[in-house]
Amino acid sequence: MTEDRKLPQLVMRRPALSDLPEVVLPENLQLRHFKPGDEDQWESIVDQAFGWQRNFQQHMSSHPYFKPERVWFVCDGETPIATAGAWYKPEWGEACGYLHMVGAYSWYAGQGLGYAVSLAAMLQMREDGRQEVVLETDDFRIPAIKTYLKLGFHPEAGTAELQERWRHVYRSLRLTFGEGS
After folding, report:
1. Cβ(46)–Cβ(103) below 8 Å
2. For the whole model, what pTM was predicted?
3. Which phi and psi angles does 30 have, rounded to 5°?
4. Looking at domain 14-136, what is its CATH homologous superfamily?
5. For this UniProt entry, which segments traverse the membrane (predicted)?
6. What's the pLDDT tens digit per position in 28-40?
């Protein structure tokens, strides 16, 4: 992505993890968590999905919350093609999980991979004892935001500036932003 990032990032929250559906994938794809040797594939997915390079060791596995079962992949055969992290950031509270680094290769667009891998991460958060989930995203990640809305996330827009940014995002989605959004 070459889009300009606006800060702070947009925040979305799903207030409960108790009512999550089952993960459903296209017949030829599988779901699994991280295993040694996936580092390069994770970096490649992140580079292609976000347009910036991240080193897996520096950005993920060196984090005190890292466990292999908290990094999820959708795979085509053995090859990871989408990823999401079931993360935790103390600033959101003990009961709150953090959906982290959701990305997929663009050539797999339209297959629901972001939805499926995010759902797998959220199920992991529930297993880890989290009761709700939050994420941060960028204004220009319109397909991702559409997926997050389908997953039951709601925008947090506590300031006039954030409300205007969310109105713009919702217009891009051909939706109306307002109370209860």
Report:
1. yes
2. 0.93
3. -130, 160
4. Gcn5-related N-acetyltransferase (GNAT) (3.40.630.30)
5. none
6. 999 999 999 999 9
